[in-house]
Amino acid sequence: MESLRPIIDAFVSWPTDVLRPSAPLWERLAQRIAAETGGEPVLPAPQRWAEPEWKEPAPGISCKLLATDTERNRVSMLVRLAPGTEYPPHRHAGVEELHLLHGELMIGDRKLYPGDYNRADAGTVDHRVWSETGCTCVLLTSFDDALL
Predict the structure, then answer these.
(1) Given 33, 48, 62, 140, which is the most exposed site by the fewest CB atoms within 10 A?
(2) Rounded CA gap, 82 and 115, in Å?
(3) Residues 6+ apart with CB under 8 A from 1
């Protein structure tokens, strides 16, 4: 079985501010340095949220990475399937949660509509996932899901 980790890793770029202290810690450090040097505290500019880009890991499948949790091997992303697209069969390494935002999605013989939620437990397999209409969903899943 092939792991989904390489696909997820393609979306995850190492953050450039890994060593940047949290905002409260930065403020305390700036205040302390200013007190010791007699200068003004230098505070960082507020960080703006950067809209993630859509990437296409396979024809008809687009993903927008929202967040990763490396400690729990979890990822949250928006996923779009173009009309007539089928997602590859896969085994869930952990709990998968899907909330359909737009379009219709078939998971096995279950048809989901906008607003529907689907939960799949670890170890379960999705043999067939596809959309005739195209769809967009929020997906929370494991890095280690395996393509069959």
Answers:
(1) 48
(2) 19
(3) 91, 146, 147, 148
